[in-house]
Prior knowledge:
By secondary structure, this protein is an alpha/beta fold. About 35% of the residues lie in helices and about 25% in strands. It is built from 17 helices and 16 strands. It has a seven-stranded parallel sheet, with helices on both faces. Strands 7-6-5-10-9-8 form a six-stranded antiparallel sheet. Strand 14, helix 16 (about 405-420) and strand 15 (about 420-425) form a beta-alpha-beta unit. Helix 2 (about 30-40) crosses helix 3 (about 45-50), helix 9 runs antiparallel to helix 11 (about 190-205) and helix 15 (about 385-390) runs parallel beside helix 16. The longest helix is centred in the middle third of the chain and has 15 residues, at about 190-205.
Amino acid sequence: MLILQMPMKPFTEKMPLGAFLLKKGKISEKQLIDAQALQKIEGIKIGAALVKLGYITEDELVQAMSELYGYPVFKMGTNKIDPSVVKLLPADVIKKYKTLPFYREGNIVRVLTTDPANEIALEQLKFFLSGFKIIFYIGKDSDFKNLINQFFGEEETEFSTETVHELVESVSQESFLTEPQEEVITEVNAPIVRLVNQIILNAIFKRASDIHIEPFEDSVYIRYRIDGVLHDILTLPAKLKGALITRIKIMSNLDISEKRLPQDGRIKMKVGKREVDFRVSTLPSIFGEKAVLRILEKGSLQLDLTRLGFEEESLKFFIEALNKPYGMILVTGPTGSGKTTTLYSALMKLNRPEVNIMTVEDPVEYTLPRITQVLVQEEIGRTFAQVLRSFLRQDPDIIMVGEIRDFETAEIAVKAALTGHLVLSTLHTNDAPSTITRLVNMGIEPFFNILFRDFN
């Protein structure tokens, strides 16, 4: 058995940009405080806030970042741009990491970035461009957007604070707020519909993985999970919470009259040329219902093991384990660390006409070609364990279990691994060694041959 522990993200410290500009005398302390306030309200970078307030120019911002991070400045019209080099990265990666390769000399690639503070993204980029030496250049956000439009068409529209405030004002004047009516909430031009659409589209724009709509006594908070970390995006009046949740429920075909019990649903939307699915969960709290939307964008799913950020030795070890005819591979790690993406990438590598691959998931997050995927529905008795038993009568070669939650599922999965099947799954533990303890505590006999590999 291989236990694969997904890594926590490393962080390094550097002087904040605002403090650097203050130290250099480019801004005053009051201007920094103003920018920090705008940053909180709009969920933007401190540099963008300073530019938006008119305290510094884009050119001054780029020059300051160049001094702080030690990267040269990109100048539109001066630096050569090779369209074939731009294609070294997929469009979704370029947009997600705010980086764009623009010129190549031998094995040296010059890359434009607008966010040098995001060292994690820059490190991840090195895996996408493995084999190349990368020289980063810092450029203006406006130049980056122009290049995006030039090579990939119009970029999605980000939050317009003015528009959102107008929508909030419009919604606040509606008479249905105390008891939202379905016919009003489904009206395409209704302010609440447009407000929810803005929240969703902005989350897609920011490459968020989850949207949290959280009601409290005085406010409703909108938060996005981006690269595994939750960020405050918007604070709305508390009186909007009923209308927001009702709209979300209608979009996901949930019962708008049921407010006492948790509910789960799905939304499918077309954004430009892309189809995006959302897994929706509502939960009653003391201040109203909370909704969480998991964004499942198949087009942005990276199903290539070589592009997931593995170190060379770890990737070799993992692929060796995948090539075994039987056994169990468990992937563990914190929320947002890439467990599901790793499993799906592994399945795509194993997906060949001569093998029968079957998965049992709750929910099925992405559909995969020529792979039998089964959705768990516990309310009708279709549990992980029940489906796994059925799988063993379906002549499988490879089985993927979305999550091992109980002894019965663990026992069947281990027996399947010992009887000629390759089993892949996830388990909720804090680290790789704890996986062994968890399995033993579940009732799995400790004499099974378990090999653990920590990829931290």
